């Protein structure tokens, strides 16, 4: 047991946590509550209560539906893909090979490079006359208009993976190094093959890491908007028109209803997702513990 | 593992590492090319050139520092925007480190009612995309009359939730015995924070500072929405705008811009890796029960 509760120390603890909590309240939480209330009125000043009318209007909006679908497709493809890739890469890097530290560095570097300073490379890469089409041409494949067709999604996923795979590799490497070697040795004695070891030891003990990697990958998938914005501007090809574009444009047009309601719905989805993830994680952790 | 196996692994890794570094290598080498050579390589659309593709060239015909001269000396705009970035990014990083290390200590090592719920709110806010938090931010900034001032970008950045999260995870790994021992020696809470927690969290704080520096140096949306005066824009916006018009200096501008972050990374790579590695949410870690 730890020592007893002391009044003086409680005050000190409050002083330590206060700046962060107060800042969060002022800039995030209180205005957010205000925003929720406002979403049920037709105008911010002296508005009339309209119930869920604003939400119904939003859900009927075609641009919004398109943006939701695209965001779901992007997250649904890119997050599993980056997790599989980073897991495979970290398993390779975890082997005893020469220069593994240098390899790791190579995969992390894109994380620290500002997007704006290399975005020009990606513009040249995906241009109609760009590097990729030059390579395709070499193999006698007709050029693809990457940024102005549904292939644009591939460009976005490529940039996302390039930029973020290093972060996940660091996390998975830490997870892999946390698995005791004895587990593998014991499994070998029992005659387990590499596949059995992977599924019954590696994957199982990487679970806590994997949950965290999922959260971080989703956070980073929202940030990819920056790259898309730099690459394609306010109105990119419709296949990569994301929720963030929709909200940015709603902000520019001062269309607060659409902005506020879509922000609230997105928060709701994130909240439900995190909640489920934590529940599942707890259940699996308990199962491993037993 | 067999030797052949190891060779195959190494070969795959070399290929992938080169692929990851290729955008950087191209930007570096192209920054030493003359504008003319760049225009030749990436000619703009014109009728005669139909069907011609850009050339992928890593070695300049003749090395020149002309791009760097143009960016640093001939174009005053670049330097002004560079300072704009500094004025925005440094206060955010400094403020975030101070405020979030204090809060993270309380979350990691002290027990109080509602702690886990409060921390859950931090996680939700941390996960929100900028476009979602932009609305609440704007409401407050507008009420406080801060729109079009640097503080409109600095404040929401300083109070961001990610720093608290990262450092809390890091501080969870500090053994409670250290704190108990200090208490027995008569240290107050503040003394414990300064003498034990902060020194032991050096890696986490360095990693948070690097991540926050990179993230904020990269900002695009906040200045566009909160700043009306284009003269106040940071370098990140300037870079996103020169790309098409002035291809001839874009590479050097990009290199100069990424240099501070690359140097920070080369110096603090191990801290960065350590900080990120510790951030995994693992409830198996013993929770602090100081109070």
Kindly list the characteristics that best describe this protein.
heterodimer, A: 290 residues, 0% strand, B: 291 residues, mainly alpha, 14 helices, disordered C terminus
Level of helix content of chain A? over 70%
- Within CATH, the superfamily of chain A carries the name MetI-like
Q: CATH topology of the largest domain in chain B, which one?
A: MetI-like fold
Number of structurally distinct domains of chain B: 2
Question: Mean pLDDT score of chain B, rounded?
Answer: 84
SS class of chain B: mainly alpha
> What Rg of chain B is obtained from the alpha carbons, in whole angstroms?
24 Å
Q: How big a fraction of the residues of chain A is strand?
A: under 5%
Number of strands of chain A: 0
Overview of this protein structure:
- The complex is a heterodimer of chains A (290) and B (291).
- With 290 residues, chain A is mainly alpha-helical.
- Chain A has a single domain (63-289), classed as MetI-like fold, CATH 1.10.3720.
- Chain A contains 13 helices and no strands.
- In chain A, helix 3 packs across helix 12 and helix 10 runs antiparallel to helix 13 (256-289).
- The longest helix of chain A is centred in the C-terminal third of the chain and has 34 residues, at 256-289.
- Chain B is mainly α.
- Chain B has 2 domains: 1-64, no CATH class; 76-277, MetI-like (MetI-like fold).
- Chain B contains 14 helices and no strands.
- In chain B, helix 4 packs parallel to helix 7, helix 4 (76-109) packs across helix 8 and helix 4 packs antiparallel against helix 11 (202-217).
- Residues 284-291 of chain B have low confidence and may be disordered.
- The chains are: A mainly alpha (290), B mainly alpha (291).
- The interface between A and B is large, with 102 and 106 residues.
């Amino acid at each position: 047991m730890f020592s007893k509760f002391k009044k003086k120390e409680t005050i000190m603890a409050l002083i330590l946590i206060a700046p962060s909590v107060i800042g969060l309240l002022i800039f995030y939480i209180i205005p957010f509550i205000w925003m929720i209330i406002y979403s049920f009125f037709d105008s911010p000043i002296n508005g009339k209560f309209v119930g869920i009318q604003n939400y119904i209007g939003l859900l009927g909006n075609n641009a919004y539906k398109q943006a939701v679908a695209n965001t779901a497709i992007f997250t649904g493809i890119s997050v599993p893909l980056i997790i599989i890739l980073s897991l495979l890469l970290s398993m390779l890097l975890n082997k005893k090979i020469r220069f593994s530290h240098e390899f790791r560095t190579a995969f992390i570097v894109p994380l620290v490079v500002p997007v704006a300073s290399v975005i020009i490379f990606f513009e040249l890469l995906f241009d109609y006359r760009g590097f990729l089409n030059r390579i395709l041409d070499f193999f006698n494949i007709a050029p693809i208009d990457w940024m102005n067709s549904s292939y644009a999604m591939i460009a976005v996923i490529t940039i996302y993976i390039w930029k973020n795979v290093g972060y996940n590799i660091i996390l998975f490497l830490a997870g892999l190094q946390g698995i005791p070697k004895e587990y593998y040795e014991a499994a070998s004695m029992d005659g387990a093959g590499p596949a059995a070891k992977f599924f019954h030891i590696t994957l199982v003990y990487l679970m806590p890491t994997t949950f965290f990697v999922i959260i971080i990958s989703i956070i980073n998938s929202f940030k990819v908007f920056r790259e898309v914005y730099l690459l394609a501007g306010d109105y990119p090809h419709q296949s990569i028109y994301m929720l963030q574009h929709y909200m940015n444009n709603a902000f520019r047009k001062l269309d607060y209803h659409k902005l506020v309601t879509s922000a609230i719905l997105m928060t709701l989805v994130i909240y439900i997702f995190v909640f489920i993830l934590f529940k599942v994680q707890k259940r699996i952790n308990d199962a491993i513990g037993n | 593992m067999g030797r052949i196996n190891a060779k195959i692994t190494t070969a795959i890794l070399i290929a992938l590492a080169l692929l990851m570094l290729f955008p950087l290598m191209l930007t570096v080498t192209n920054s030493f090319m003359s504008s003319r050579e760049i225009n030749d390589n990436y000619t703009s659309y014109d009728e005669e050139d139909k069907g011609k593709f850009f050339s992928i060239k890593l070695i300049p015909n003749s090395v020149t520092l002309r791009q760097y001269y143009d960016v640093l000396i001939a174009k005053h705009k670049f330097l002004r925007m560079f300072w704009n970035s500094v004025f925005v990014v440094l206060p955010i990083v400094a403020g975030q480190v101070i405020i979030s290390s204090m809060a993270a200590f309380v979350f990691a090592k002290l027990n109080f009612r509602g702690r886990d719920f409060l921390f859950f709110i931090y996680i939700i806010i941390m996960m929100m995309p900028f476009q979602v938090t932009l609305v609440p931010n704007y409401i407050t900034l507008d009420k406080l009359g801060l729109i079009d001032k640097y503080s409109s970008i600095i404040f929401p950045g300083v109070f961001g939730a990610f720093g608290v999260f990262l450092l809390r995870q890091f501080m969870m790994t500090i053994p409670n015995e250290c704190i108990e021992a200090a208490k027995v020696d008569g240290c107050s809470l503040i003394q414990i924070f300064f003498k034990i927690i902060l020194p032991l969290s050096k890696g986490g704080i360095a990693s948070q500072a690097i991540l926050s520096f990179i993230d904020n140096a990269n900002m695009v949306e906040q200045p566009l929405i909160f700043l009306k005066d284009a003269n106040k824009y940071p370098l990140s916006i300037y870079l996103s705008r020169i790309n098409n018009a002035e291809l001839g200096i874009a590479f050097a501008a990009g290199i100069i811009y990424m240099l501070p972050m690359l140097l920070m990374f080369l110096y603090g790579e191990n801290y960065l890796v350590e900080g990120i590695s510790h951030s995994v949410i693992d409830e198996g870690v013993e929770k602090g029960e100081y109070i």
